[in-house]
Amino acid sequence: MALILTSEEEQLRDSVRRFVADRSPLPRLRELITSAQPYDAGVWKQLSAQLGLTGLIIPDSYGGAEAGYAALSVALTELGTSLVPSPLLAVTLAAGTLLRLGDEDAQATLLPGIASGELIVALAGISPGTVRASGAVLTEEAVLTGEVTPVLNGAQAQVLLVPATADGATAVFAVDADAPGLDITPLTSLDHSRSVARVRLDGTPGRRLGGDATAALGFAANLANLTLAAEQLGGMRACLVMTTEYAKIRVAFGQPIGAFQGVKHRLANVATGWELAHAALRDAARAADERPQAFPVAASVARVMVSAPYVAAATAAIQLHGGIGFTWEHDAHLYYKNAISQQELFGGPGEQLDRLRALLG
Fold it and tell me: Which of the 8 DSSP states describes residue 325?
């Protein structure tokens, strides 16, 4: 396991970090909260076209960079540090599902648009859930009925990849956003940096995609754990840095509060949690690129290792900032909401531990 970034990963990290500081610092998120925009369209265009983040895992034959999952995790960590709102996580899960399915027609149709950032494709869940397919499910005549909640960036997607039960088996269908019988309702999220929606299908036509849907959705679940862990790690680091800096300048009883053992120990615990989570994330990212058989367990471990410690870091940030930390106007609350929301997305801590137990037998 390589904990140290490669030179290419360091260049990517520095590029994304500079971009975020210049184009999407945390105050920009507060501006978006008071507007009707789920994300900054200009920032999204630059993330995809200028930095090429949307094509990191997409083969160059479809317009991507083919840089791999370790590079993707590095970029997502930097975006998570400033809670940059974007559809990147949504389109990454969709792209990963398409790549694992192996349907060449669907890949040729959708992956180039995803890589360029011009097409937003969202994965409507990582299991069939309540969605059922009927009709001639092997043709475009198939119709879907059911509901999926929440769907990342569902309200902004032009195409949805919908898992469904068809003839007793799991399948994935491509559904156009303007298809009849499709109702997409934006939802209010605790996390201001995340756009989610409820998707209802009522006799909605869909195109069944070829390939092993069960394997593809299993991979999507692993990829969700990896990408969420990367974002959470960035938020955790921001909480640690913000609180440590405050502990140096906040004076009580004639000395900085960072000089008190109670504060030192609290921050040391956060720092230790971050180091362990970082190691687990690097292992999962490397497994995705180099040891695919180890990826499911490694991704689950990364998610378990970062979710609860991120919540603890965000809680410590609020408490160690004292009275100011308990005001909704302070940035600590943005990270706290993000930590609580991210922890439950695609399965909370209990579900993740159950998944890890099952994977380990």
Answer: G
Assigned superfamily of 121-211? Butyryl-CoA Dehydrogenase, subunit A, domain 2 (2.40.110.10)
Tokens of 179: 């298809």
For residue 114, what are the contacts with CB-CB under 8 A and spacing of at least 6? 54, 55, 58, 91, 94, 95, 120, 121
Q: Cis omega before residue 292 (within 30°)?
A: no
In DSSP notation, 254-276 reads: TEEGGGSHHHHHHHHHHHHHHHH
Domain ranges in the chain are 7-116, 121-211, 215-360
Say how far apart CA 284 and CA 147 lie, in whole Å: 31
Dihedral, CA atoms, 173, 193, 188, 126, nearest 10 degrees?
30
The predicted-structure confidence for 280-303, as pLDDT tens digits, reads as follows 999 999 999 999 999 999 999 999
Alpha-carbon dihedral 293, 298, 300, 306, rounded to 10 degrees: -160
18-57 tens-digit pLDDT: 999 999 999 999 889 888 889 999 999 999 999 999 999 9
Going by pLDDT thresholds of 50, 70 and 90, the confidence category of residue 139 is low
Cα atoms in the 13 Å half-sphere on the side-chain side of 348 = 5
Q: What DSSP assignment string belongs to 107-165?
A: HHHHHHHHHHTS--EEE--SS-TT-EEESSTTSTT-EEEEEEEEEETTTT-SEEEEEEE
Q: How does 39-49 read in b/e, with b if 16+ C-beta sit within 10 Å?
A: bbeebbebbbe
CA distance 343 to 316: 16
Q: Which CATH number fits domain 7-116: 3.40.630.30, 1.10.287.3510, 1.10.540.10, 2.30.30.180?
A: 1.10.540.10
Number of other residues whose CB lies within 10 A of the CB of residue 193: 26
